[in-house]
Design goal:
single chain, about 270 residues, mainly alpha, elongated
Length: about 270
């Protein structure tokens, strides 16, 4: 819990905090009726109904990973490929020297879904067009998987207000059945209790689910850009280019890190391998 709080993204913290503060201020405008804003059955209808409808529209094996990613979206995390770049530079030096057996052993330390099969293809002497096809296929798969995850959050954002309205309708039905034996005060209380579920659905969709879907989409886009960069590096490795040329290519993508691109690092790649 402390790790998540410490890693919270500043913009996420400000946005969520500001939104919740606004809602709290609206609640405190009439403090004598503050209890009317708490409706546990209505909250269960919104949350449970949204998840249930999402499971109907999507397989559970796709929905559960997205739900697990929601806490991660609150963290201050930016996708990077520093480890993969270091591994690629080491491999480039080994492969350029023709140490094929050593290169094969180095691949076993790499677990990236694109780098590992692509480097095996390079070591096996596969054609350039085959390597390009492999890279494009893997990136396309990652793009489709990312789009599916974003769509799940967007779907939940659509369902949440609908189930909020459903909870309101249930409350109104109970209220109408009691019209004959209830007073005006009791009817007003029942009406407020019914309407609160619509509020829950709107807050869930517009303060949480839609913004998180946008954030997840942006994070996937960053990962795709990184994989395109790694793909270009793989093509240069297949041509046995010197690691310094690969570094220059990576810098053209806007990647910079003293730990990776320092001259001392470049000159000691072979010994580090």
């Amino acid at each position: 819990m402390k790790r998540i709080i410490g890693n919270l993204n500043h913009s996420t913290t400000i946005g969520l905090g500001g939104g919740l503060l606004l809602i709290l201020v609206m609640i405190l405008i009439a403090p004598e009726h503050i209890g009317a804003f708490f409706n546990i059955p209505g909250l269960i209808v919104v949350v449970g109904g949204t998840i249930a409808a999402t499971l109907v529209s999507r397989p559970i094996k796709e929905v559960v990973p997205v739900l697990r990613k929601i806490p991660m979206l609150l963290e201050d995390y930016s996708p990077n490929a520093h480890l993969e770049i270091k591994q690629l530079l080491n491999f480039a030096e080994i492969y350029r020297r023709g140490a094929i057996r050593h290169a094969e052993q180095h691949i076993e330390k790499i677990h990236h879904p694109i780098l590992r099969p692509a480097l095996h293809h390079i070591v096996d002497g596969g054609p350039r067009h085959g390597l390009i096809k492999l890279i494009r296929y893997r990136i396309q798969n990652m793009r489709q998987r990312g789009e599916a995850e974003v769509q799940i959050l967007r779907t939940m954002a659509v369902f949440a207000p609908a189930f909020g309205m459903l909870g309101t309708l249930f409350g109104l039905i109970h209220m109408l059945y009691g019209l004959g034996s209830s007073g005006i005060a009791e009817i007003g209380t029942a009406m407020a209790f019914a309407m609160i579920t619509t509020l829950y659905g709107i807050i869930a969709a517009n303060l949480f689910l839609k913004p998180l879907a946008m954030k997840l989409e942006r994070r996937h886009q960053q990962e795709i850009e990184i994989n395109h960069m790694l793909g270009e590096s793989l093509l240069m490795i297949q041509e046995r280019n010197h690691p310094s040329l690969i570094i220059e290519s990576l810098e053209s993508f806007g990647v910079s890190s003293p730990d990776i691109f320092s001259p001392r690092r470049t000159s000691t790649l072979a010994s580090a391998a």
